From TrEMBL:
Family annotation (SUPFAM superfamilies): Adenine nucleotide alpha hydrolases-like (SSF52402)
UniProt-listed PANTHER family: ELECTRON TRANSFER FLAVOPROTEIN BETA-SUBUNIT, ELECTRON TRANSFER FLAVOPROTEIN SUBUNIT BETA
Pfam name, any one: ETF
Swiss-Prot/TrEMBL GO biological process terms: carboxylic acid catabolic process
Family membership: Belongs to the ETF beta-subunit/FixA family.
Gene3D superfamilies xref list: HUPs
CDD domains per the UniProt record, alphabetical: ETF_beta (cd01714)
UniProt source species: Azospirillum oryzae
Protein name: Electron transfer flavoprotein subunit beta
GO molecular function terms noted in the UniProt entry: electron transfer activity
Amino acid sequence: MKILVPVKRVIDYNVKVRVKPDGSGVDLVNVKMSMNPFDEIAVEEAVRLKEKGVASEVVVVSIGVKQASETLRTALAMGADRAILIEAGLGPDRDIEPLAVAKLLAEVAREEQPGLVVAGKQAIDNDMNATGQMLAALLGWAQATFASELAVEGDVATVTREVDGGLQTIKVMLPAIITVDLRLNEPRYASLPNIMKAKKKPLAEKTAADYGVDVTPRLTVVKTVEPASRKAGVKVGSVDELIAKLKDEAGVI
């Protein structure tokens, strides 16, 4: 079975994001970029399934700018077999909308015929949490989102999902789309020998036009602003004082 894993190049989670002075977007000049953390977990899970003999090949795909090839090389160093880069040409500071990404991934899935697509539940730059669900709808495949446990036996995947009320375990027939949550696994670090080997692994470069998909944005960002700073908290000396502040100042009781 082949596993397809979409990965996205995002601002590193350790970096403090800065908004451009004109409010037109986020400043990406000299900003460290890395693989989306949820996608790292997806790559790790796919590689583990291959190590268990469940999968025969792991293919990673990224959609975006030319520099996303670096992100794909990281995935290859983690253990993926080959990579596909789809250049969209919107520029480094313009994100591709989830529907366009899902349409491109659907075309890749039809071409590659994977038995399973394992993706991060969301990207940390826009927190859309939509691409996996849209992809399942476009392909007409089963889906299981927010996976914290995954087991594949034959044509059935058993997924434990993290939901508001706790945990939910479901079974889906393959082919299926699985989106993963943080507690599924701990991604491995790519070793130096594997990083060197990754440079020799195949990385195909294509464009959105090759798949006949229009990635023109349907939404316009009017303005980007930083969140309002929180006011400093206060300490209270007693329960009575706390209740008085909640009632008279906060107005919540």
